[in-house]
């Protein structure tokens, strides 16, 4: 079961349709920026909400400014090589089934400007980019131009608020970052991608498919701990965590220094805590968004 949509991103409290049909989602060439915050169909957060307590609730993403709250919009650019699992991460975090299906159907177009929205959640806007492949940096330039363009928007609601750079954990000694990933990681200040003289866009590096690494470690421990399943699970996860530091954190620090937030995730049910951690990390970066 996917995690519920963060409170401030919800559009009221939708009631399932009588026939049980799944809510539709749309991909439009026109950004859905005409949503009226005063529309009674859009529930505003209660005035008594204490933003300092946001970290207490891992399923609640806290807005960074009153303006963002009033406009009820949150824009995320999701970057990652095809096949790293970014669509699964998006669905797991925001609890919107098949939100990215239309993006996959339009994969031949790779239109980073085309916003993804859901009928369940008009406050969430996603922009999905084409993956960086080998030495081809054409797609990287498209991403950089998009970031700069969104940084020049006058209205906070029209800007880019965060970037998730999704990279698959190498299980068999493969390369964790493509060339484009490394350039993107270096093209920043200590706080994120520089998009203007007033602010930056924070980056979270999301190392995906953590469960596959744990499975590999389980196989290596199977004979010695076959009779103690609890200890087998514990040692496998402990070994996987150390492996992530070697195969992911070290290359990240080598590419961009020790200045980027990162986390490992899996979208499998037994690893929901990793998705909650990603939400919390995003929440902690919010004070950087829209700071003037």
From TrEMBL:
Domain of life, per lineage: Eukaryota
Region (Disordered): 11-66
GO molecular function: GTP binding
Compositional bias segments (type: Polar residues): 23-37, 45-66
Signal peptide per UniProt: none
Domain G residues, every copy: 75-148
Xref: InterPro entries: GTP-bd, P-loop_NTPase
Protein name: G domain-containing protein
Species of origin: Hydnum rufescens UP504
